[in-house]
Amino acid sequence: MGILEMIKQPWPWYVAGPLIGLTVPALLILGNKSFGISSSLRHVCAICLPANIPFFKYDWKKEIWNLFFVAGIAIGGIVAITLLKNPHPMLIHPDLAIELAGFGINDFHGLVPAQLFNWGELMSVKGMIMMVVGGFLVGFGTRYAGGCTSGHAIMGISNLQWPSLVATCCFMAGGFLMANWILPFILSL
Amino acid sequence: MSKEIIASDEFVSSQNAEEQKDYQLRSTDAVCVNESHLHHKWYYNFKYMAVGLLFGVIFVKAEIISWFRIQEMFRLQSFHMYGVIGSAIAVGLVSVLLIKKFNIKTIHGETIEFHKKEFNRGQIFGGILFGLGWAITGACPGPLFAQIGTGATVIIVTLLSALAGTWIYGYFREKLPH
Predict the structure, then answer these.
(1) Whole-model pTM?
(2) Which of A38, A142, B7, B71 has the highest local Cβ count within 10 Å?
(3) Inter-chain touch A171–B160, beta carbons under 8 Å
(4) pLDDT of A67-122, one tens digit each?
(5) Which residues contact A152 (CB under 8 A, 6 or more apart)?
(6) Interface contact A131-B155, CB threshold 8 A
(7) Quick check: helix, strand or coil at residue A166?
(8) Any residues with CB less than 8 A from the CB of A39 and at least 6 apart, and which?
(9) ipTM beyond cut 0.85
């Protein structure tokens, strides 16, 4: 198998995880930046619609690096899907496949299930909850918690900040609650 | 002459106070605060775009931005995401220890600063709310950007909604329990 063929395969966790961990020292050494992504949403608010809200009245130019970083993530998505695309369909756990089939979801191509997340679904109650309410909870919750998976779980715990560990446990608690008890109801709508 | 010096000192200290205030505001409810004392040209930021690009490729290739993988994680059906997050933390932890122990400087010779995170109840309430959203959308903020990059254009709506959520939080911040 050639190297390119190998890169096109899905990467195992023991390759991806350490590489993501290396983002922490990379950003620190490149320019004293603490790894974090959800703050980019706050900076966009501060730039576009500060509306005299104290929380958004700060010198966002000092944090502009964060927007370059997230723009890079989007470009990385384009690169990976065009040049390094895995030609095979994704393998998912059989129990999950059975559960989703019960809600009429049987297309496991792509990273985002096209049967749930598409422009047509946006106008349905289910689509509205999945895309609009879901997004709102992500934006509101991360800022209320003071960070997301990158800022709290990875950067915060790496720096031994116990509040970050508390936040990470709460992320997981919310996720378990939603995936196992609330999401089945939403998917059945 | 001496009067002039005093005046300029006052100017500097008032400027510092202003910067201090701005710094404190930016630190509010943020894990990452970035206070470099160096002033670089804007295009220096492209180095962060390069790191982001590699990061985005990893996100896609390790299927971290996959809605299915997130569902498996929250149903304990796969070790993949736990392995990714766990090993990322392990590498981050060792890196931070090494940076502190050997007092490693940035490429521009600056001392690397770390910031303490104060506990508030927002980490609990907000954390749970974010967890709910994470399991619905299958994405935390980073993957949202990568998902859009992979051509799932409708995720732009999710991103705009996340921006709205952030803005609404800022608007009601004073009234929320912390």
Answers:
(1) 0.92
(2) A142
(3) no
(4) 999 999 999 999 999 999 888 888 999 999 999 999 999 998 889 999 999 999 99
(5) A145, A146, A164, A167, A168, A171, B31, B123, B127
(6) yes
(7) helix
(8) A63, A66, A147, A151, B30, B31, B32
(9) yes
